[in-house]
Design brief:
The chain is mostly helical. It has 17 helices and two strands.
């Protein structure tokens, strides 16, 4: 974080620094210890001589869910061998690989929690050195602590541990469960509630600091390139309308209101988290990933703002965040410095007092921009 920043931390803050890092590492270590060994049956090759009813339980799916994965109608016969339904072995192998790629590792839940815990400590206690006054505000909230978390999220929570679980998947699986594509709704709901809770504890910290694809977009946007192009921001009313519209379309297609065939999940073709398994079963997935990463050079978190269903859910959950950006109305002069520093319209909307303003990803860019010290990150109860 730089020698100047560290020397400005008080003794109490240095204790918080050590304790925050230790607590985050401890959560990760607990996750490693509690990670169950892989099941012996996980590599079992399933054959087309078997029926949907035989295969589905082995993949923790319902018959409808497996039928959808195989491109069959949801009401396809469940007792006939797959070969009799026209399914080739390579189709079954591909569907099986796709389903198993969504099998979550519990370790990631602990890592997500650890990163969010560190983010809370950093944002609340460490960003503003106790021995640095307003004249040194540019040294507040150094990017090193943030960038380190983003790199950890991409390398470990993404590339090392694969795409599952992830925030986007948690929303999609709940809706699929309600459509009868998974045998249990409760475990999918609990996974979603876990991610929502992390977003409420600290304003959208799960998206801003821990989500691997969100982190990758943030890292690309942070590169000192094309700065003039970055001055233009997609109007939030437009990006949110697209994100909401896509979610509604997903529901209409999934439940067969549009198209007449139940079980179609549009997000399966727009899922950039497949990048972390290095597997793209459809060209649209690869195209979505490449376009999102390319746009990230000039647009702030394009996938999060335009597509991600969890981005939509956590945007709603922001209204209940326990720790967030707060504006001191008595000190604010509406100079616009925080709005210019913010990569989205979030700071501008907060100053304007909008109830449903743009997503705030707790990136800390605005927190050392205000010349009046009118913007803070803290508890809603203080």
């Amino acid at each position: 974080m730089g020698q100047t920043y560290l020397t400005l931390l008080s003794s109490r803050q240095k204790i918080w620094l050590a304790a925050g890092i230790a607590a985050a590492c401890l959560l990760g270590a607990v996750g490693v210890l509690l990670e169950p060994a892989g099941q012996a049956s996980s590599d079992e090759r399933l054959a087309v001589t078997m029926s949907i009813r035989e295969i589905a339980p082995r993949l923790d799916m319902t018959g409808k869910g497996l039928a959808r994965e195989l491109g069959l109608p949801l009401d396809a016969p469940k007792n006939k061998p797959l070969a009799a339904l026209g399914i080739a072995q390579d189709q079954l192998d591909e569907a099986t690989a796709h389903v198993r790629s969504h099998r979550p590792t519990r370790l990631k839940y602990y890592l997500f929690a650890g990163i969010v815990l560190w983010a809370l400590v950093y944002m609340i206690r460490l960003g503003r050195p106790d021995q640095a006054d307003l004249s040194r505000r540019r040294s507040w909230y150094p990017r090193t602590g943030y960038i380190a978390c983003l790199i950890l999220a991409v390398l470990v929570c993404g590339l090392a541990l694969g795409k599952s679980p992830n925030p986007m998947e948690s929303v999609v699986k709940v809706v699929k469960s309600l459509a009868g594509l998974y045998p249990s709704v409760l475990d999918k709901v609990l996974a979603l509630l876990f991610f929502v809770a992390l977003g409420i504890v600290g304003n959208k910290l799960i998206c801003g600091w821990a989500c691997p694809f969100g982190a990758l977009q943030e890292l690309i946007y942070s590169l000192p390139l094309l700065r003039r192009a970055k001055r233009w921001k997609i109007p939030f009313w437009l990006s949110n309308a697209l994100r909401c519209g896509l979610f509604v379309v997903m529901l209409l297609l999934l439940f067969g209101v549009v198209g007449g065939t139940k079980g179609f999940v549009i997000y399966h073709y727009l899922n950039p988290f497949n990048l972390f398994d290095r597997h793209f079963e459809h060209w649209l997935i690869l195209a979505t990933t490449l376009v999102a990463l390319a746009l990230s050079f000039v647009v702030y978190r394009p996938f999060c703002h335009l597509v991600c269903p969890f981005g939509l859910v956590s945007w709603i959950a922001e209204r209940f965040s326990l720790v967030r950006i707060k504006i001191d109305r008595t000190a604010c002069t509406n100079c616009g410095a925080c709005g210019r520093a913010c990569p989205s319209q979030a700071a501008q909307d907060k100053v304007a007092g909008k109830l449903l303003g743009a997503d705030c990803y707790s990136c800390a860019r605005c927190l050392n921009a205000c010349p009046q010290d009118a913007i803070r990150y803290g508890s809603v109860f203080s």
